[in-house]
Design a protein that fits this description.
Elements lengths: L4 H14 L4 E5 L1 E6 L4 H14 L2 E6 L10 H17 L5 E2 L3 E3 L5 H9 L4 E4 L15 H14 L2 E4 L18 H10 L4 E3 L8 H8 L4 E5 L1 H5 L2 H4 L14 H12 L5 E3 L8 H4 L16 H8 L7 H18 L8 E5 L3 E2 L3 E4 L2 E4 L6 E2 L2 E3 L1
Parallel strand pairs: 2-3, 3-4, 5-6, 6-7, 7-8, 8-9, 9-10
Antiparallel strand pairs: 1-11, 11-16, 12-15, 13-14
Helix pairs in contact: 2-3, 4-5, 5-6
Bound molecules: zinc ion.
Amino acid sequence: MHLHTEEERYGRKKERNTGRLRRILVDAICNPHWHGRELAETTGDLILLAYLGGADILGPMPNTKIPLLTARDTTVYVEGCRRLALRRKLRMRFIPIVMLNEDTTYGELTKCKKAGIVDGKIYPYLRTTRSAHGVKHWGKMIQVVKWCGELGIKVHVHFEHPDLGYIDRECEYLCLPVCQIFLEETDAIIVWEHGSDSRCIPMWKKFAKTGRFFLTITAHHLAWNEDDASGDVRKRCRPLIKPEPDRNALVYLVCEDCDWVMLGADDAAHPVDAKHIHDGKCACGDFTSPFLHLLCAHALDCLLQTKRGITIYNNFTSRNGRRFHKLGKASRQIGIIRRPSRIQPSYKVGPWIVESAGAKEELLYSFTS
Ligand SMILES: [Zn+2]
């Protein structure tokens, strides 16, 4: 599961030699891809758990039960999040994100801009959980993406092809030409959400040369490979967790310290009965919020051995996202230590019991005060 066995061994030896473990201070997480679910039911607890996992910025995804398709809906939702955070005395900021689809109008986008909403998200129709308002025809989106470019609204895309004729293993890779067309035909900033297929890396690097291409990667795609996820519904997510060579290549990409690569956790809570089902297919999403920094540290352990590496870790988990969204510095620092901890099996989230991805598994790091 870990690449850097030499460094790991070295790390362990060092711990033994010094007799005590080194506390590492890292920036609070900027997580521009977070699922807050329904305001009245679950959002308050989800904000608290994200805070405990180390975040101070959350970008709520607009695929709520009633999707956030307008400036008004998005503003009401984000205001609700702010109120819930305030009620719990949590210092948390939110990035408002509107859903974009074939029906999005120029008029609505100008309203968004006026309301300070400068991020939009495209979902592929029915390819993932809660995507009934997603896009069927990419071609029709070129005009919408163009408008976003004109208005300075960043376009975040769940790049998996909605045509189910394309098999799961290929449906992210096959979006490369779609992304290329968006970049060539518009002036918009494009964010490829939760990149998982390492075959895309050479093209991502080429796209990044435009200065208008950005990539988010989740902690779970960095920490686990297909074998780790196989047979475990708690790790079932979109895009699928890929084989070890992909995970390996994503970790290396993060280590390259590109300013266009940032964490987007896609931490998505589902009630236990939506995961362990007897009919149909389980809901997709990995719940990683309460231990997000530990999972990142576990996956990127190779970086946390040196001062330079810790800077790269902070860039990926926090600073690149803050710069991109113009959000200033982290509001707090989080203490972590290279002492094993175990992922809590489940959490109470409003009326739900939510099981963690990687429940009961050991992570290399623990939180420390
Ligand atoms: Zn998501």
